[in-house]
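Cross-check.
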Amino acid sequence: MYKSIALLSLLTGSATAQTLPGCHPTWTGQSTLNKGSKVSATITTTTTNSAGDEVTTSVKKNFECTSGDGVNSVTTHCPNYDPKNTAQQTAAWEVIDAECDGAAPAPATPAPTTSPTHPEWAGAGCPDDWVSGGDYEPGELAAVDGVTYRCSTAQAVNLWCGNSLYKPGDSLYWESAWTLLGSCDGTIAPTASPSWGIGAWDGAGCPEEYDGNQEYEAGDRIAVNGVALQCKAWPNSAFCGRTGYEPLGPNSDSAWTILGTCTGTIAPTSSPSFDALEDQNGCPEAFSDSAEYEAADRVSVDIDGTKSLVYQCKAFPDSGYCNSYEPGHWSKLGWTLTGFCEGTIAPTGSPSFDPLNEQDGCPEAFDEDAEYEAGDKVSVDLDGTISLVWQCSSDVHQARYCNQQVPGNEFKLGWNLLGHCDGTIAPTASPDFDALTEVGNGCPDVYDPTTDYESGDLVSVALSDDASGNRGVVYQCKSWPDGAYCNAGVNFAPGTDNSAMGWSLKGSCDGTTAPTASPIAFSGICEWLNGTTTVTIAAWSKADLASYKSGTRVRKGGDVYKCKGYPFYLWCRSAAYEPAGSGPWGDAWTAAGACAAV
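Predicted model, tokenized:
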């Protein structure tokens, strides 16, 4: 009995002697919490004992925040994650005392520490202090608390250098925008103008200062810190007004050309000198944005109210730009400067036929109900004795206007003036074969508009007045791109007015060409060793066009062709680029040897 009481006394005394740690401030979602912060919270647990009764216990515990960087509140979850919640406790808190009682002593105030020291940077003095919201150029210097930093020179990163979230040395992301150079003392002494290691520009003074809000075009000149620069030609000129391509910036070379150093300003220039331009003897009509222009049209652009510049619309296809760009545009598209003018063009007299070619008789008169095609000639009566001769353009794009516009129309569409004529055209004799070289032993196949011809193909055209039916004229299909007209239809058939666009006259023929033996098709297996893999090369086929890509090999007969890389491989999928065909196949395929039968 006494021993039990003594033992109980010893046990009770032992428990009483154990001291619980004090409790840190209770968690209430304090905004100052961050990694390392300590709080307490009462954890209530409900369990079931052996008798089946629920037993609720409450224990106050100490926790330490494990979330964040210890500096910036935006990096931690502890102000929002309640340690009493099991899931949130696991994510942001760590139990440091399984039970606490009373109040923990306030943490000792640490002795003030000195600012971290950095090696002194190489510059003499401190640059200007960093300013929140400031505009910093790539490589620009700034100081914070006696430490020098350099703004990043990476493309567009300098845009962050003035952002408070990137304050040098004192923010979460500052190292993304700034580089620490070292400590500094005092201020940087004013420096002389920078030396660029380039010669002086031969211009008389500096052009206008660069303005980031200005739009610049090819050839525009500006100045930055005593350096003259010029906006490059198209397409680089597109960058001259864009952020990130500022002159003397990290990407300056993509948009600007350094001309040299400069001083002062460029003196105002006098009105343009016309001495170097040819007088056009009067001004044509002034250019109008609403007018429609075509090749050879001339317009004037007023300069000072008394003199104008004269421009002429370029020949096709450049003439297509004459309705998209005004004369004098920096792109120089569409228009050619021909000279200057004063006043207006004097009225001209009746047309003189001296400069026009005599056409040795008149073709049939133009008929609005007739159908005309490229190369057709017509006459238009002037005074009952003399007519003008017009020919429908050989250009397939212009020729379609011959059935829409009359010869001499104000738009100059479709018809070309050849000269004048008198009387009618005399019948022509049959061609003289003495002047033609006989080609081969007999005539090749007669031209057939339904046949697909390739470069080098020979055809014959029989003579309508040849009683024997064996004589003909031989033509050969031209090489690309002219050879494309060989399959353009009867309007471009050999012997027609447009024949020369696709066919070359080779000579005459008599009889028929002796039949040749049928070609022997390649009958072996065409293979290619791709590394260690043997690949069978299939014949080129329209059915397989969609499968052709860069590196694909095909064969035509016994010859092998390889599809080019991007973007040229896209043409490998077009039948118009059939290897060794009459089209521009070399733009898509390259010759890659010949098959070896195995």
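Residues 1-17 have pLDDT under 50 and may be disordered. The chain is about 5% helix and 25% strand. Passed to J.P. for a second look.
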